UniProtKB/TrEMBL annotation:
Pfam families hit by this protein: Abhydrolase_1
Protein name: Alpha/beta hydrolase
InterPro entries xref list: AB_hydrolase_1, AB_hydrolase_fold
Signal peptide stretch: 1-21
Keyword set includes Aminoacyl-tRNA synthetase: no
Amino acid sequence: MNFIKALSVLAFTAALTGAVAAQNAVADDIPLCGPDTLDTGGPARCRAPNSDATDILIIRPGTPATPARLPLVYIFGGPGLYPDRQFPRMQALANRWQRTLLVAVPPGLDSRVNPALVCAGEIAPRLWEAANTPEAAEPMTSDPATPLAACLGHIGRQSNSTTALSTATAAARLAAALAALDAGKVDILAESYGARIALDVAARRPDLVHSLALDSPETPWVPAFWHSGQNLMAALDRLEDACGYRRKCPTRGRRMAEKLMTRLAAFNQASAPAMRLRDQTSGEVLGYVRPARAHLELRLISALASPVEAGHLPYIAASRSDADLQRRFARLVSGYVLDDTPALSFAVHHIVRCSEWPMTRWYKALDADAATYPTLRPMLAYLKARQQHICTALGVTPPDSIDRLSAPLIPTFVLSGTLDPVTPANSVENAFSGDPMVQRRLYENAGHVVQLAADCVLDDIDAFFQNPKGQAPSSCKRDNLQIPFFQPISVR
């Protein structure tokens, strides 16, 4: 860390003393959840009894339905996704469904109250660091320690920062807040990791929950869940199948996954030019990076969560050189690198992961996948080394096992997407197979399903909430979820 950065970290740490001292005052400004909270014109946030931070953000529709519908609780994944960053999307859902949304804020995610868990500015954990010129762009390292040192040191210095963030605590606080609202029953829609909180709330307080919808739920008790390499390759194979049906797909399904792996295996960071990052709207050059192969492979996983980004992968697979690969990958990397607003709390994410996931299962699966898919070995080795380093630095010893969550006792709608390598559809099917209260639906060409914001998917969810015991057919047709495969514009 250079001298200026060191001073910045010291100044930030010193400022925490005042911030922590003001914590109680901040908490006092957050209204308690109560029977009058949901009245029109009521507060926009509230906290459960005995809580010192926001537990629920309240988003009201522009025009409520008549008669009024049950409130809808929304729980994000991550863990550690900042709910307030998603406000525009949540307001759009509230307006579409004409119902009040109660957005859950799990412990540690009210940054005003939890400054010890915020790594921002100079101590932010940065995987990608853009330079102003190609010459200044340093080769990115696969060593996980350097870009994380300041943040991990900050988290480790704070007392109690690794406690009270568990899934069970999050569920207990949310259940307490809902009970205090005294609004009767609610529906719950949860994404990814949030499904574990939702199922816990429903098990604790079935009297408060009318129905559940779980989008791409996290299922770490299923063995296949841990195979990141295998799940990525399976998702690429399904993308290849989708590509084969489309005339405008650059590879037309002709061994797209194989071509992509071959191109990545030949990539040489030392000789490849710096990747030029552009504003995707204006075309302005905003910086340069020199990624290693592991960083490019990691980007494939996140790209498959979005239909627009997934549609770019066949174009990358058709690259003919390292320069070609860099230029085409830059379209995926630019927005990811240059967004300075963190969507995820690094601290909350990894404290929960390290304390709840049986990491040895993941590490063994990563090793097995590295032997099966040698092209992915740099990425899989990086994932393992990074997670081991983080858990050790946080002083958290992962458990040896994780229990299967209890089967839901209320009507539950489970959605999954064929392209999702993070919460793969086969693991979701395995986890909920045979549960009598569960309706499962698989969406073609989707990653995390609700993030698509496809009208037909939202209509399916709404139809379930309106009649949870019914078996309404999907309103999605094949054309509704087509992948917009990227086609470069040729000027003649």
